């Protein structure tokens, strides 16, 4: 079995690769894994350090938009798991050009190469943000897409392309859409690692607007197990939701982090709301539960405490990232 993982040096992709190579996924114990990652500011070789010497891992630094590199790596591949993306909403509001290039053109390049190579399965990793915002209830997989941020719009475009390649070319594509992930090795621009590391340093945390925006939180390990189930047993041409089952407003999430880090409300700095900030996302996960037996395993209280503890004990990982923000070197 040969698996191509794009974006495998990022937060979620590296978790998937570390788990895969440590034998966590049934029947894939001896899979040969190729990681293709451009190593943007969000990609970090340190994320793969625990498995760097594994003989089943090959790391290739390269761009998913480069058809020569992609064609070469796609040969003899049984499964593609496509994580690579520009992933930070705030950056897409400031300048979306890299999002259009990587998320749309890059996904298209991979899909074309996958058709040419006749790969056995292509899992496209996407997000609940493609649906827009929902005040009450939960989205099912057939909900029309209505993205609001430039990030979400590029992910929606890539979802449409992936499903079109299934319908048009018969490529065995599955699309996964998940809620907000948290866990170790997440770049400290995203809310949980940013707030946790600020609080561990005795700094304030910037809370957007009135703090009412609400998200479902999914531990990265549960997300990756869901992706593995879809890759193994999902029906081609289908979309599967992967959620964590803990819905919190940003104010509630902040209160949990203050509590774990031993800080109080004086550490919270209110900042103007994000432009076009979606109020609420909520996924119905009954399809993946019924068809593939998925259920989140990590309770939020336990998962968030372990996550903060990881940042507390891995300053060597995040301090250099916060000391040299992207664009300053
Ligand atoms: N983090 C979340 O909460 C979340 C939620 C829903 C969906 N997702 C999706 O999951 C996937 C992974 O997210 P993440 O949080 O791990 O992102 P991340 O930003 O941590 O990692 C992205 C990785 O992709 C690589 N990359 C970027 N552009 C590339 C290119 N042109 N060619 C090759 N590699 C490139 C980066 O170097 C990095 O290693 C993304 O597709 C994202 O849209 C993430």
Shape: globular
| Helicity, as a percent range | 40-55%
The name CATH uses for the topology of the domain at 2-181 and 218-242 is Rossmann fold
The CATH first-level class of the domain at 2-181 and 218-242 comes to Alpha Beta
Structure, described:
The protein has 329 residues and is α/β, with parallel strands linked by helices. It has a domain at 2-181 and 218-242: 3-Layer(aba) Sandwich (Rossmann fold), CATH 3.40.50.720. Helices cover 40% and strands 18% of the residues. Strand 1, helix 1 and strand 2 (32-37) form a beta-alpha-beta unit. Helix 6 runs parallel beside helix 8. The longest helix is centred in the N-terminal third of the chain and has 21 residues, at 97-117. The model has no long low-confidence stretch (mean pLDDT 96). Bound molecules: nicotinamide-adenine-dinucleotide. Nicotinamide-adenine-dinucleotide binds at residues 6-7, 9-13, 36-40, 42-43, 63-65, 83-87, 102, 106, 125, 127, 155, 178, 180-181, 187.
Quick summary of this structure?
By secondary structure, this protein is of the alpha/beta class. Helix content is 40%, strand content 18%.
List keywords for this structure.
329 residues, alpha/beta, Rossmann fold, 7-stranded parallel β-sheet, 3-stranded mixed β-sheet, 11 helices, 12 strands, globular, binds nicotinamide-adenine-dinucleotide
């Amino acid at each position: 079995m040969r698996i191509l993982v794009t974006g495998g040096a990022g937060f979620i992709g590296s978790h998937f690769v570390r788990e895969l190579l440590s034998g966590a996924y049934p029947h894939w114990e001896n899979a040969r894994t190729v990681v293709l990652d451009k190593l943007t500011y969000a990609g970090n070789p340190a994320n793969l350090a625990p498995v760097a010497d594994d003989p089943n891992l090959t790391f290739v630094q390269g761009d998913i938009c480069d058809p020569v590199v992609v064609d070469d790596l796609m040969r003899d591949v049984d499964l593609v798991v496509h994580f690579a993306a520009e992933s930070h909403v705030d950056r897409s509001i400031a300048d979306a050009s890299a999002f259009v290039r990587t998320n749309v053109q890059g996904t298209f390049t991979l899909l074309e190469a996958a058709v040419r190579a006749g790969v056995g399965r292509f899992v496209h990793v996407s997000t609940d943000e493609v649906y827009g915002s929902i005040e009450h209830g939960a989205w099912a997989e057939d909900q029309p897409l209505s993205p609001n941020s430039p990030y979400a719009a590029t992910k929606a475009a890539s979802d449409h392309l992936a499903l079109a390649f299934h319908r048009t070319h018969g490529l065995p594509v599955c699309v996964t859409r998940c809620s907000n992930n948290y866990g170790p090795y997440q770049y400290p621009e995203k809310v949980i690692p940013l707030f946790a590391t600020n609080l561990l340093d005795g700094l304030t945390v910037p809370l957007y607007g009135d703090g009412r925006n609400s998200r479902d939180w999914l531990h990265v390990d549960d997300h990756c197990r869901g992706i593995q189930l879809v890759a193994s047993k999902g029906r081609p041409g289908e979309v599967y939701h992967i959620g964590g089952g803990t819905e919190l407003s940003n104010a509630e999430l902040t209160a949990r982090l203050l509590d774990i880090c031993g800080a109080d409300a004086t550490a919270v700095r209110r900042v103007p709301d994000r432009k076009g900030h979606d109020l609420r996302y909520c996924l119905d996960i009954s399809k993946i539960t019924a068809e593939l037996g998925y259920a989140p395993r990590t309770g939020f209280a336990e998962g968030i405490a372990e996550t903060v503890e990881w940042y507390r004990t891995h300053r060597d990982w995040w301090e250099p990232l916060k000391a040299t923000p992207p664009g300053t070197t």
